[in-house]
Design goal:
about 110 residues, globular
Length: about 110
């Protein structure tokens, strides 16, 4: 059986999953207004941290912290703990997770 997330939806809110070691690159790609928001709320990509980040065009994206590989190795279902902190809705994962993590997170 192949594990996967739900099929894409036109109503889905974009979801970034950001590991601590990828935070700087992700942050640098954000518009200035979004960077200010991320600084203000203190998002650091810590494991299970979850926020909504507004963009300049009136939309928002969800972001879940994926922590470090060492922290992820001590537990399972990091995305599930982040999802519980987001508003109810449909989210579309933007980007990829490592194959092993994707299978585990699809179960969570």
């Amino acid at each position: 059986m192949s594990l996967r997330f739900a099929a894409p939806s036109d109503d889905a809110c974009p979801l970034d999953v950001v590991a601590e070691d990828g935070f700087d690159e992700w942050f640098a790609a954000l518009p200035a207004q979004s960077q200010d928001w991320v600084k203000t709320i203190g998002f650091t990509a810590a494991l299970g941290q979850a926020v909504m980040v507004p963009s300049g065009d009136g939309t928002a994206r969800a972001v879940i912290g994926f922590g470090s590989a060492a922290k992820r190795a001590r537990g399972r279902f990091a995305l599930a703990s982040g999802f519980s902190k987001l508003p109810q809705g449909v989210y579309e994962l933007i980007g990829d997770l490592p194959a092993g993590d994707l299978g585990t997170e699809a179960l969570g």
